Amino acid sequence: MGIPLSLIRGVRRLYNEPVETLTSIDFDNRQYQMLPIHVIACRVTAENPDMEFQPTSGVIQELNFRSTPDVWGYFSVSSKGGVHEFSDSQFGHMFAMGETREIARRNMVIALKELSIRGDIRTTVEYLRRILETEDYKSNNISTSWLERMMASKEVEAEKPQSHLAVILGALFRTYRQSGAKLKEYMDQLDRGQLPPPSLHHQLVETDVEIIYEKVKYIFKVTKSGPDSFDLSINNWTVSAEVHTLSDDGILVLIDGKKHVVYGQEFPVGLRLVVDGKTCLFEKEYDPTQLRSSMQGKLVRYLVSDSSHIAKDKPYAEIEVMKMYISLTSPESGIIRLIKPEGSVLEAGDLLANLLLDQPDKVQKAQLFSGQFPPLKAPRPVGQKPSAILADSVTKLQRLLSGYEMGSG
Prior knowledge:
Blueprint: H1 9-14, E1 38-45, E2 47-48, E3 54-55, E4 58-64, E5 71-75, E6 82-83, E7 90-98, H2 101-114, E8 116-119, H3 125-132, H4 135-138, H5 144-153, H6 163-191, H7 198-205, E9 206-213, E10 216-226, E11 229-234, E12 237-245, E13 251-255, E14 258-267, E15 270-275, E16 278-283, E17 290-292, E18 297-302, E19 309-310, E20 315-321, E21 324-329, E22 334-338, E23 345-346, E24 351-357, E25 367-368, H8 386-401
Parallel strand pairs: 10-25
Antiparallel strand pairs: 1-7, 2-3, 4-6, 4-8, 5-7, 9-10, 10-11, 11-12, 12-13, 13-14, 14-15, 15-16, 17-24, 18-20, 18-23, 19-22, 20-21, 22-24
């Protein structure tokens, strides 16, 4: 049964035999030829590198990969598909080749940078990119224990945008989405013959946006300074930006004389933003009194009884995600009140239990930002010519007369 190895085309090439013939190959005495290429393979998995590679699941809005003569890959899902919470986390495999190992490595890095995956899931693509750029990997000084050490020490982390840029773009994205919803509400009231309240009109041109990033809280005052422009102010610092909607639900932001492609999605745990292919997460205010599921899955069992006391960092439940059990731990000490029954199917953010804290006054909250951002240029350079300065001033004046407002800067 089966096909003899000597009749497989790839095997015949390996032993330098004509692929169109049917002659046998003496595998015991023949030496295969060394192929003049090097190959690097990467597995693409639906795992979150920022949370110890916990599996994720959900819908995929976009998966864009193009094979080249030097890079080939395959994926078990496509755009508008998804990764099920009970399936295996790997859904893609990529291979890059080159005349030398270094050329193959560079080809893989380029392919990973061009690979675009957007959706509910997190992937290891950004982390793989960083691994391939380490000096140890370049010099081939690696092993399985090396990778374990890198993961444990967090010497390599997924690439992120600059902190101040991430915060500004996060505030812009949230403001842009909220302003669209407020404008729709305003127009709907006019269509019904109602006069919108002054407070709603004020929110169309000025609003406060709160955002938390890396345990620091930022509160921006955002004013709409034009049809597609916003001014953001914080601690006597102001920057202007232009925002344009893309056809795939992303936004193009012009700020500091540069362009950035931004995609975002609100989750129960916060806002996930992808800036030029780099992912960052904006958390919600820390609330340890509510114990929620951080991922989709099935609630297998509770490890504590209802109304019992649980210590900080102790597991209180187990959930099944992608053929594995994951323990959920309590962020603080207190009395636990169970809500979800065992066996429930969970979505990310589902409330599992409430926690009556032992010491609620000692819970650490996000620190309010009191510093300054670096100075940033206008989204479009005006120049020093008097005519250009005059044209820019006239445009701003026309916008003010049209009902827009300018930031404090």
